[in-house]
Structures are given as structure tokens and as C-alpha cells.
What we know:
The complex is a heterodimer of chains A (242) and B (227).
Chain A: E1 3-14, E2 17-28, E3 32-36, H1 43-50, E4 58-63, E5 66-67, H2 75-81, E6 82-85, H3 97-107, H4 113-126, H5 142-154, E7 160-164, H6 172-187, E8 191-195, H7 199-205, E9 208-213, E10 216-221, H8 232-239
Parallel strand pairs in A: 3-8, 3-9, 6-7, 7-8
Antiparallel strand pairs in A: 1-2, 1-4, 4-5, 9-10
Helix pairs in contact in A: 3-4, 3-5, 4-5, 5-6
Chain B: H1 14-47, H2 51-65, H3 69-82, H4 89-114, H5 118-126, H6 131-161, H7 173-184, H8 187-216, H9 218-223
GO cellular component, one term (chain B): ATP-binding cassette (ABC) transporter complex
Membrane topology (chain B): Multi-pass membrane protein
Transmembrane segments (chain B): 20-45, 74-99, 191-217
Amino acid sequence: MSAVIELKDVHKSFGQVEVLKGVSLAVERGEAIAVIGRSGSGKSTALRCVNRLETIQSGEINVCGHPVHDPKLDVRKLRLDVGIVFQSYNLFPHLTVEENIMLAPVTVKKLRKAEARALAAQALARVGLAEKAQSYPEQLSGGQQQRVAIARSLAMQPQVMLFDEVTSALDPELTGEVLRVMEDLAKGGMTMLVVTHEMGFARKVADRIVYMHQGRVWEVGDGSMLANPQTPELRAFMAHDL
Amino acid sequence: MKYKFDFGALAEYWPQFVDGALLTLEMTVLSTVSGLVVGTLVAIGRRSENKLLSRLCGAYVETVRNTPFLIQLFFIYFGLASAGLRLPVVVASVIAMVFNVAAYTAEIVRAGMDATPRGQLEAADSLGMSLPQIYWHIILRPALERVYPALTGQYILMMLSTSVTSQISAEELTGIANNIQSNTFRSFETFIVVAGIYLLLTLILKAGFWGLGLALFTRRRRLGTSL
Lengths: 242, 227
């Protein structure tokens, strides 16, 4: 079985600072991968490279058959296959929840409004917010906004979902409701790459955990890896996890 | 100072006042709509990654904002006429007004567009939307909502500066007033009446913008909060 997401020796610099120093990683279809590591280890950057929000200097990235490293890539086609959810939700404030979700299906996939509305209802039900369709983002809690953002991505029916520290701005209760939605997704067989600081989630839900340190993949393993770190760096990192 | 006001002398001219006011209003509405469209396109051009386009739009904006409207009007009416293109007075006036107000519009709208949070653009981008789609659905309406007071203020100013077009004998309100006062020698009364009419037009325009704002900014209408 070939990988849906494959990074080979990816290098990425911002000016003089090299953020990714040869990252390689393969994600199989249906796998949920948690990427952990301290701030500045390059995990968010690696994630953003996967859907070309950042361009890389060298190496190869293949996602659902799209050569992401290729400058001539049709980026919009790539993005039909890859959904992403951000730490800061990034909902469109002037649109209702339903309009937020319907926008891309209507404008990008050219669905009829009725079809898109049905799709939005379905996605909202999946994140447990069916009754909020007519609300505006500012009327929702952070956790609800983040779940809408997940629904907005899901409505495009991507093959892969990327999560960039999606609970970092939320209190523990709201974090829980968002993580439950993600756990359901993972159980439903969605291919997921999840950058997170939630060790519990990594342990419980992820098929594999990737520990990044100083721009490199430092350690890869399953949930037990967190209890038995092989490297002193991961051991030090886990020492802060209560 | 002894001056006896005699507004009665103006009574027979009221149809002309009405005509002048209507022409002023028509020129204003036409220039507002066109100015908004052209100005928005210039703002987009100025934000473009294409350096040449961006600089051209910048040069246009700076030229217009740093020269007097009267000179722009003369340039379009007399300048083009001597080059062989003789435009009707009202057409030349409206073109000059659009040319002028579009530059101010561009700067105001650009400020509103620049205030779009980057995350929203990344989200739209990640959903596969194209740049024109992002401008139309994500950037434009919130941008207009943010700068709406500044923008409508600019159009009210423009309405008032239609009076300048009387210099090329456009028969808008001020032009009419000049005719009337030279016929009646009642200049004090005439300009009091005209000032009153301008005030009234301003109120009408403001009400119009208020209604348009309600129609355009659904979220604001429903929640009453600013973006």
C-alpha cells in the first residue's frame, strides 16, 4: 500500500533560519498521525508545507498523487483533496455558519445551493452543531467555532485532513469537545495529520506518534513511545507532561 | 447694515431650483456607483503582486489626490476638447468626478482590504478558492463594512463638490443659482435657498447610504456589532 502523504528529505528555511532540516515521513490511507514537539520544532511548518501554504527549498512532498514540491503544481487541485483546520479557526465573520460551510462547495465545486445546504447540514450534524446553522461565528464559543471550521473542511470531502494545533486556544472543556469530534473522524477512517500538544489525544487516538525536534523527525512510534522514550530529547519533553 | 430679504422674487424660479437639485443628485449617484466600482478595481490593482500594475494604480491615485479637482475638470473638458474630443458638459463633469472620487475610494477601500486577517485568506486558499472568488466572497464585503463611514463621507464631499462643475457651466444646483441671482440680483436669498437645498440633498444621500448599509451588511444588521 502506498502512502497518501509522503515527505522525503524536506528542507525549508525562512530567510537564514532553517526550520526543516530533512524531514521524511509517510502516512498511509486511514492513518491518524499525531505530530508532537516543542514550539519551534518545525511541526506546524511541516504541516503547512503539505498543502503548500509554505513552499519548500528542497526535497519531495507527494500528497494524494499531487507532487507538492513541483512549482508547476495546480495548487487548487491539491487543495480539493486536502482539508486543513487552524489554531485560530479562521471562520469568515460576515457569513453565517451555514454560509461558511456552503461557500467552497458552491464556488469551487459548483454545487447547487440546495446540494451544498444538505452537505452543510450533514457536516454540522457530524460535529454536533446542527442547531447553529443560522448563527454567526461571533455568537459561538471557541470550541463551537473550531467544530464549524472542521465541518467547513469536511464539506469539501477531502481525502486528508490536517490539524494545526486546533485546541491550543481552548480551555480544557472546549478542547474535549473538539478532540471528541476528531476522534470520531479518526475512527471513521479519515487520514489525519494532527499537530498537537494534547498528549492524551496522541496516546489514545493516534495510530503513530511523530516527535519532532529542531527541524527533524526525532522519534516515531505508537502510543507506548511516550511512556518509553528512546531519546533523551523526548524524555526531557515528556518530563513536562504531568 | 440694512438689508431687506425678499424671497418672493425667487418664487417663480422654483422649477429651476428643482431641476438643478435633480441634476446634482443624478451626477452624484452616477459618480458614486462608478467611482466605487473603478476605485475598488484600482485598490485591487494596487494590491496586486504585479509590480507594474501596482505602480500604475499608485501613480494614478497620487496624481489625482495631489491636484485640484477644478484642474482635473478643466483638463477633461477643455483639454480633451482642444485635442478634438468635445464632450457634453454633464458627461465631462461626471467623468471628472468619477476620475477624482475613484482615487479616494481606492485608498479607503484598500485600507479596508488590507485589514483582512491573513488566516481568513489562508482558510479560503486552503478550500481551493481562486483569487477573484476570495476577493468577491471573503475580502470585499467586510472591507466595505469596515470603511463604510469614511467611504460615504467621501461621497457626500463629492456631492458638494459637484458645485465646481458650474465652472464649465453645468446646470446643476450652483450653476442654476448663478443664473438666478444674476437675473434677480437677489444673491443673498438665492444662496441661502441653495445652501438649504444642499443640506437637504446631504440628508437624502445619508439616508440612502444608511439603507444601503442595512441591505449590504446582513451580519451587522442582525447582531449590531462591528467587525
